[in-house]
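The records we work with from here on pair a chain with its fold. A complete example follows; check for yourself that the lines match position by position.
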Amino acid sequence: MLTVTTVNVNGVRAAARKGFLPWLAATDADVVCLQEVRAEVAQIPAEAREPEGWFTAFAPAAEKGRAGVALYTRREPERVRVGFGSAEFDASGRYIEADLPGLTVASLYLPAGQVGTERQEQKERFMAEFLPYLTRLRERAAADGREVLVCGDWNIAHREADLRNWRGNVKNSGFLPEERAWLSRVLGEGGYTDVVRALHPEVEGPYSWWTYRGRAFDTDTGWRIDYHMASAGLAGRAVKGFVERAASHEERWSDHAPVTVVFER
């Protein structure tokens, strides 16, 4: 089996203090994709930077303390690429990919927006550039006999079932009609499958992010924005997908929970 986990750690240094390291030591994952690392490589504690049994690759943001993505793999990658050929975004710590035998796996942190601000315009620019790259990536991989898996925090809830309070968020970034339509294009013309939704087609959630404000975690008032987007061949081999939800609010080490998918090799 091939097991892949994605998680936005909300700052790897803080997560390492709160419980990320014991989780990493215990996980059965073959690949772990991290987002919002928010640290230069030299600032990351050694136990998280070079953990025993893992090969690691980091893409920090040029803007200190922001974004940052990483890949942890049990096997040494054949190739690592930072960015997707974007003059604006390749140094922003939002995309890293690695080639493993028969598979290209990537960690993505798509920008979070805010309606009516430059942040939303930046998100839209990123989306406009990223979809053509996703399509080319899948086509190139198919020509080479490879599958593709792009994991991460996509900062978009695709369907009403992907967030608890969807009626209250129809005008907010993360659930805007144009964002949802773009994600539909990823699944359509891009040729990708939302693996967890394919495994759980009729359920609410399972949510992967809950604000720290109020009792959102306790009442499961969450969003499903952390996705495994796979090429068709790999998606067809998925046998299990689940959210590693903490047992209690106090035991959380991020405002996101790890999302794990198990594939037949």
Observations:
- The chain has one domain: 2-263.
- The two ends are 5 Å apart (CA to CA).
- The mean pLDDT is 97.
